[in-house]
Fold these 2 entries.
Entry 1:
Amino acid sequence: MKYGYFDDDNKEYVITEPKTPYPWINYLGNKDFFSLTSNTGGGYSFYKDAKFRRLTRYRYNNVPIDDGGKYFYIKDEDTIWSPGWKPVKTKLDKYECRHGLSYTKFIGEKNGVNAEVLQFIPLDFLGEIQHVKLKNTSSKEKNIKLFSFIEWALWNAEDDMTNFQRNLNTGEVEVEDSVIYHKTEFKERRNHYAFFSVNQNINGFDTDRESFIGLYNGFESPQAVENGKASNSEAHGWSPIASHYIEVSLKPNEEKDFVFMLGYVEVDAKDKWESKSVINKKPAKEMIAKYNTKEKVENALNDLALYWDNLLGKINISSNEPKLDRMVNIWNQYQCMVTFNMSRSASFFESGIGRGMGFRDSNQDLIGFVHQIPERARERIIDIASTQFEDGSCYHQYQPLTKKGNATLGGDFNDDPLWLILSTTEYIKETGDFSILNEKVPFNNDVSKAKSLFEHLKVSFYHVVNNLGPHNLPLIGRADWNDCLNLNCFSQDPNESFQTTGNKKGKTAESLMIAGLFVVYGKEFVKLCRELHLDDEAIFAAKHINNMSEAVKNYGWDGDWFLRAYDYYGNKVGSNENEEGKIFIESQGWCSMAEIGLENGMVKKSLDSVKKYLDCDYGIVLNSPAYSKYYEEYGEISTYPIGYKENGGVFCHNNPWIMIAETILGRGDQAFEYYSKIAPSFLEEISELHKVEPYVYCQMIAGKEAHKPGEAKNSWLTGTASWNFYAITQYILGIKPDYNGLSINPCIPSEWKEFNVKRVFRGTVYNIHVKNPYKVCKGIKEIRVNGEKIESTIIPILDSNKEHKVEVIMG
Ligand code: BGC
Ligand code: NOJ
């Protein structure tokens, strides 16, 4: 069953049934000020940091789900309704929620009144606009009452939900004209406040939650709305809110519009006050004036659309498969930008108060957005690398506000350093900007210890070399990419975190996944050294890579697939000898991508085993059989019920590793089948089961052994977005930036006849037309650039003043 449809021309997903199987959300904002908004108006806003600068309150995992947000109430005689259906839930004559690129539009209609609410955050602006249009579609005059509503959070989102003995005393507001100011804690150490305004005169307001809603009412039936009148309440402590009350009369066919704005203001400490206890409202008034008319709002929305056209225009495909085109051209790229902004902080599954920026997450996310915003990718690489230690190890996370490593969580996740080689080399290939390697980058944020970024890559590489275990394979440390395979943890205390507990010294447990990762990015390091003419460095590094491949062949092969690890005791993990968890996806992906044993059939065997033991209708599961009991020596992985999360779930992030590996073998049919099994647009028809948004990837789909296979969770903030984008564009469609040009090497389903890709690469437009007359999956017969045949499969960097035509014939 579907709950809406893709409107590709408008780059929107249109939800037509408000009761989606889970709230389907969207993100507003592109820099510094952000909002999350669900398809029924739930959600919240924050400035920069979802924990420390929360403007509006949200209650996670609420009953009913997703209660609380930015709401409008319309009272039309005795009928009360909301344009986004919630919170009132009156049955509407029409309901539509259009999630677009950084905006969401609700259209509701009831009894001859049409209400449209458009929410967005203009570019470079610290405020959200809610543009409300009310139209009388009936033949009688309408006199309706409009109420707005938001609930302020008291800035620190964690404290706001826990420290009531203080918080219920601190709330303070001011109201002037049509603007409600949230000045809680402004009198002390905060030099910021928020406001909620509307560009017209109001007939009343409320700022105290109980006065507006009533202590025994819910969001769906606020007392003030039921009474049809605001009480001009002033909040003193308790829970401050902001609600405007406006009486609107509309003649038949008449439309009136209102611009509401939720803004954030920072002032210099010396300019805080206008007069005693009266805050300085000048900056807020300037913000309000910027968008106080319909025309100004429409212009800002236009600018936003142009911004997205430009970002998405760098890669545009047209195949014969609309589901694929809309993923690549719109939604997958969009999600990559959202993960760039949010990392893993704020979603409907991440509370925004927990995690900082992950070292490995942020490096991997980068491969999904580097083509869109290379300058910000550059900045991001330097920020991440600055948290690395001199021996190559890293803080596992850093905080976005301070950009410092998170000491509570610490490090010792031994895959972390290698991802820096991935992000940096991908950045250089995309941009040609080798100068980034000469940037002086601190270690552990200490500038006195700064060395070139190239040195950071080198210590990343040698961190693995310097931390080998008994089989000459990489020591796993706290965990590798799989945060839940905790081989040194040995926890029996439920209050211990698997992420921070290491009860044993990690001198034996080894990871085959890191081994494969090392060979892949070790080769990249060598390739980079060659580009830089550092031949000795390259030769030296290549030896270590060879040694690693040998170690994998000697100790990492289980007969039909690659082992996953050796545990603390030196026992095999992911072996046929194990009772459960016989085979894992990660080492098959990485050792195959590393081409270890390609020549003697190991890669083929490994991938065939993936197909046989791990593949299911909903994607490739992480391990099989899933663990049915708790294994102290494996840790968190065995805590999850079978078929969920890292224990036998389809953990979508790692599926593209197998897709890429399949392209190495040239099996384009298989690669694309894996792609389409988890790509959200391909799952739209099973939305009822899938549950989460059909326009973005989720972290996990319940696997074949789960209670409910196919049901997904944790949508939006996942490395799945970037890896799938990378796999489809660079390995399946096969258009891959390289140091000296654009490499073309598609690996597609044999029945595909052709496809087109427009790729803007280093400022030059390439219009690539790939034809597949011989029905092959892989192989190039001929490439012509502007009519001329070229010998290589790498298109050189051409003159950016004109567009170039590239014709590719597969065969
Ligand atoms: C989750 C992992 C996550 C880790 C760190 C675990 O509970 O299963 O997916 O990476 O926590 O936050
Ligand atoms: C989610 C984490 O963000 C990521 O760092 C990790 O690799 C995966 N879970 C797998 O455990």
Entry 2:
Amino acid sequence: MTCSIAPGKIILFGEHFVVEGYPAIGLAVGLYARTCVEEGDLKIYSRQLGPIDPSSKEAKPYMRIIEEASIRYGCRNRYRIYIDSEIPVGAGMGSSAAVNVSLAHSLLETCGVEFTKEDVSRIAYLGEIMVHGKPSGVDNTLSTYGGLVYYRQGLFKRLNTSLPENIALIVADTGVKRDTGLVVREVLERYRRLGELGRAIYEVAGRLVEEAVVAIEKGDVSRLGELMIVNHGLLFAMGASAWINDYLVYKMINNGAQGAKLSGAGRGGIVIGIAGLENAGKIVKALKTEKVNAYLVKPDYEGVRSINTRISP
Ligand code: PMV
């Protein structure tokens, strides 16, 4: 049996504005989906969902990936697939992409063909289409390559840098499942209504992302934190936030975070924060006291990879 793990992701800067052609930055984070594949009859089993009927809606992305591997790489089309994921579902952390990427990777490994990460990302994207219709492709790109990815108008550039070592990254899950399509539509409606003013806000959001790249390269944590807060304010202005997002931003900052913002579509989903290592524990504790699921996450700079089946991700 071959097993692969693939990381989830967060959006650090630029969500929503990216829809109108402005840049955004995503980061792969160390919460993983693990998929194991072995030859056999066709069976799909998820640790979270139990057995999945291959003809069901849930199985569509997996069947599409198996089909592509069979057509393009001559792999067989019957495998036993075991899926396990620690990434929150429906929170904007790229859980479906991580499963699809880990499946594509372990399938090609089991099949024994030569392949590149580009192949994995491309096949996983076909699975993503089954889940999301017309996704931007950032989730499967981040999950495949890991690290920081700058993207704009469908072009992805892996940044050759890393976040400063001395910061902790906190993810708080509001537990509110958002409807990404609806939030995106309503934000765009406000953008159109605002006219000149809307364009000015988006211009600033775009410049903020460029400034964030510089702050990351310089390892300037306080600048980075401040830019996160401003980014949250711009998202609030466009109607992408909700009471719970703003509350958790305050909660993190009041407990010593240097910056915090909603991440992804907003109106629920997740809030991310950065803090000095000395404050991280206190922030997570304060969030947990409020019954909020909060995690300390580490960046993942490796992306999808094989793992020994005896080692848990
Ligand atoms: O919540 P997520 O990670 O699915 O991100 C949505 C990001 C948006 O910018 C709001 C939409 C998009 O397609 O880029």
